[in-house]
From TrEMBL:
The keyword Hydrolase appears for this protein: yes
Matching InterPro entries: HAD-like_sf, HAD-SF_hydro_IA, HAD_sf
Signal peptide annotation: none
Molecular function via GO: hydrolase activity
PANTHER family according to UniProt: HALOACID DEHALOGENASE-LIKE HYDROLASE (HAD) SUPERFAMILY PROTEIN (PTHR46649:SF4), PTHR46649
Alphabetically ordered keywords of this record: Hydrolase
Protein name, as recorded: Hydrolase
Source organism of the structure: Streptomyces canarius
Length: 229
């Protein structure tokens, strides 16, 4: 293998919990909720699929279905889809829905998986190109910079910047071209078998990891080092 492509959320980084997400925004905006109500509201937001990077809605509301399906094709669609879901849950102030969306884009809302840095550094040491291919509606580069991992990424290919979302093979093709890599010698690593599995259409090999909390997945990325040879 000459290059490895990684998904972002659920692969290299994990989003904070819904409770942490809500609590941070309430603290930042000076709002308070009794702890039982905060916990119940966080559970409702999670059940609605409102936390980007968290569990997706089992079935998006009918009036959001079209936006949800195309949410990663632009920044505007992504914001509309995510805030549309959060607005299903009552909050103390309507402005908190936009504040929640802003919070999820901050580096503080994301934690690298324990082995992410080790694997990225090892790939760099072997001279293997690294790309991040993500279905997303915002610029995740600051997250990598803040956590000290940007130096190990050679290319970022983000769906909203190209108007194409995985599993469309065109997004993976952009990444392979950016790394000057033959897709047949590229490994795609992700947590979504449909979206990330789209890389196989180009001839890429694919390795899947489980989308689990960071503490429950300490070493799932390490096999990548054996797979690249």
């Amino acid at each position: 293998m000459t290059a490895v492509l990684f998904d972002f959320s659920g692969t290299l980084f994990r989003a904070e919990s819904a409770a942490s997400w809500l609590r941070a925004v309430l603290d930042e905006t000076g709002h308070t909720l009794p702890e039982p109500e905060l916990a119940a509201t966080a559970r409702a937001l999670e059940a609605a699929g409102a936390l980007p990077g968290g569990a997706e809605p089992v079935e998006p509301p009918a009036d959001l279905a079209a936006v949800w399906a195309a949410r990663d094709e632009s920044a505007a669609l992504h914001r509309a889809a995510c805030t549309g879901l959060s607005r299903r849950v009552p909050l103390p102030d309507p402005g908190l829905h936009d504040a929640l969306y802003e919070r999820h884009m901050s580096p503080a809302a994301w934690t690298p998986y324990p082995d992410a840095g080790k694997v990225l550094r090892a790939l760099r040491g072997r001279g293997i190109g690294v790309g991040v291919v993500s279905n997303i509606g915002w610029d995740l580069r600051p997250v990598f910079r803040e956590h000290g991992l940007d130096a190990y990424v050679d290319a970022y290919v983000l769906s909203y910047e190209h108007g194409v979302q995985k599993p469309d093979p065109r997004l993976f093709a952009v990444a392979c071209e950016a790394l000057d890599a033959d897709p047949r010698r590229v490994l795609m690593v992700g947590d979504n078998r449909v979206a990330d599995g789209g890389a196989t259409a180009l001839g890429c090999r694919v390795h899947f990891v489980d989308h689990l909390p960071a503490a429950q997945r300490p070493d799932a990325l390490l096999p990548v080092l054996d797979l690249v040879g």
